[in-house]
Amino acid sequence: MNNGIKYIHHKYNEYVTELSGCTYFFDNNGAKENKVKAVANGIDNIIFTIKEIDGNVESCIFIPNGFKCQHTKRGIVTTDFYSNGSHLTYHGNPKRKKMSGQIHIKNGTNNPLIAQSDKTEAPRSSTTDIVLFPLPICRIELANEVEKLNENSFISNYFELKANDVYFNTIKVYIARKGYLRGVASAEKNYRNIFSNIFVYDNMSIITEGKYRRRASCYPQAMALQSENYELIIIATNEVVNKSYDISSIQYFQTKDYFKSLCNRNVLINDSGFFIDQEESRNIKKGMERVYDVYLKNK
User: Which of 61, 187, 196, 210 is the most exposed place for a label (fewest CB within 10 A)?
Assistant: First the structure.
């Protein structure tokens, strides 16, 4: 399915998390920029890149023409257009455990949002703690037929979108500190970390809907495209509720307060796992705890 280096788990914690047996790494091997391409039926469809410049991190995602591009702010669509020689760019500025930066899509040589970012788009996509939970960048949905990418894509790293009768047509992309995905796959280190467990089943619904919904899908391809200090986490899967899409799209969003919203949810812990409230709440319900309090207790 891909030519990444597969995570090798210990026998005594085999398949403890859903990602333990399907996690792969693309090391930068000392290069300043790292790239991977998504391929279907021998055609290059999407290119993902990550690089670090003067202490900052930058990621680009190149998409074919005809993708519906949507930016949302607090669940409301603020920008809606179709791609034409387009790529999404995130310019991240890390400061200790925080990450903040501008996110936009350029159509050819034009940035359709640059003059109106203060009015329609949050100019910065940010998180207060990239150590505990990765920063969501975008969600990509693929129709059955996707155009060939026009970019020069002589890239050795790849992953297949169609393999073993499965179409990995839903892709979620995050930026994290390097090593985060390895930690999630290794239950030996993270079985008590509630944020790692939440990430395994994350579907970005807190951002897109304002509600927490657990991802229901086949086993994904979980991949880390790595730079020196960071990694672009790519989760490619086929969701139970989204077996197919009529059109291809890329959704990117304002992420301000999403981590705070996750921390403030009520959670019920029992012997078989945990249940998280869909809605954020100011009050702690009887018999429940806040997500962040559970993290602190098990730290």
Answer: 210
Residues 211 and 285 in one domain: no
**pLDDT for the residue 114:** 54
Q: By the 8 A CB rule, do 228 and 248 touch?
A: no
* 271 shares a domain with 244: no
Q: What number is the average pLDDT over the span 207-235? A: 85
Give Cα 5 to chain centroid, integer Å: 19
For residue 285, what is the DSSP state?
P
In this structure, the answer to whether residues 241 and 282 fall within a common structural domain is: no
**Best CA proximity match to 5, nearest among 25, 27, 34:** 25
**68/218 Cα distance (integer angstroms):** 25
Most confident range (mean pLDDT) of 4-8, 104-108, 166-170 is: 166-170
User: What residue numbers bound the domain in which 297 lies?
Assistant: 264-299
Q: List the beta bridge partners of residue 61.
A: 48, 88
Count of the separate structural domains present in the chain: 2
3-state secondary structure of 259: helix
Residue ranges in the chain assigned as alpha helix (H): 117-120, 180-185, 187-190, 194-200, 205-208, 258-263, 291-297
223 plus 289 within the same structural domain? no
Contacts of 222 (CB under 8 A, 6+ apart): 19, 22, 23, 24, 181, 184, 185, 233, 234, 235
